[in-house]
Amino acid sequence: MNNHFAELGDVWKHLPLAEILRITPPRDYWETHAGSASYALTESPSRLHGALRFLSCAPRDPDLRGCAYLQALRSSPGVYPGSPALAMQTLGNTASYLFCDLDPESAATLRAATAGFEARVIETDGVSAIYRAAQLARVDPKDVLVHIDPFDPYERVTDQNKTPVELAAWLARAGYRLFYWYGYDCVERRGWAHDEISRLAPGINVWCGDTLMPACLVYPGTTGAWGCGVVLANVTRSEAYACERLGRALERISETDAVENNDPSQLTFRVIT
What we know:
Elements: H1 8-23, E1 28-31, E2 38-40, H2 51-57, H3 68-75, E3 79-81, H4 83-91, E4 96-100, H5 104-113, E5 119-122, H6 126-136, E6 144-148, H7 164-174, E7 177-184, H8 192-200, E8 206-214, E9 225-233, H9 237-253, E10 268-272
Parallel strand pairs: 1-4, 1-6, 4-5, 6-7
Antiparallel strand pairs: 2-3, 7-9, 8-9, 8-10
Helix pairs in contact: 1-3, 1-4, 1-9, 7-8
């Protein structure tokens, strides 16, 4: 169960994800930490800086008004689509799905939402399940988009298992299309996942878009910095360009959401190379 849904971290996850799904629809879409299919989009201090503010500001921005994420938010007023629902809304029955989550309540919502789709919901460790699927599946890796969004990027369930960041690098080396979301809570860690995955997967085309922001926008009452980013591997130039354009647009609409006497004072976007 994702208790931080619709906050800024989700915005800079689902905004690029929805666009990639629209630009190059995969035949297979897999998630290691799927969460619930959708959530009630209720008001909270952090959502007022997140998806609710995005809904208000994005229609006035030339690069956001037609984006897939905004269309998805508008399609079901009062409901926030998790990434599984976002994928199914965009891809429909043109793709097959593999959703993993350990939380029984989340898994139940996924089973209900996937009725009528070619989908599997596995209530187990998603890193292990996706690794097995990637080894056994008779698919072209270029036709599969794997979304990894871990609670702990260095969690190793057993000595034989990969950590989420190790899985990301292995998938990138194997030719799978990768979408890896990460967070951090100090400026020095900005872009850490790009550096780690690039080190573990040398020579692979890796792109990273990173957002740094005042921590209080996500965790009310806190000071200092918080950030999150997306690492992509084996994607096209058009996908990377679209994500960069959306990241700069998110920075643009955040200029009026500044926090005085805080470092940083507002959200900034950077492509990490």
